[in-house]
Amino acid sequence: MPLNLQPNFSEAGKRYFHAFTPGDDFYEALIETHRDLSDDQSAMVNAKLVLLLANHVGDIGVLRQALQIARQDV
User: Fold this and answer.
1) What is the pTM of this model?
2) For the chain, how many structural domains are there in total?
3) 9 and which of 4, 22, 36, 70 could share a cystine (Cβ 3.0–4.6 Å)?
């Protein structure tokens, strides 16, 4: 399965009027998760989040593709 690069946010049982709204909801939750954390704490949260989501995806090929794309232009 190739890495999905198209917007793909949703929430079970919730309907949205705009396609970008679920992505905005995630961004708001992400910012709130980092609120009042030190830089070190924020980095730790990001590391944990990457590992949790990588475990959820599970497909090593997809994860390698995501790592490669994330590193581009850095």
Assistant:
1) 0.79
2) 1
3) 22
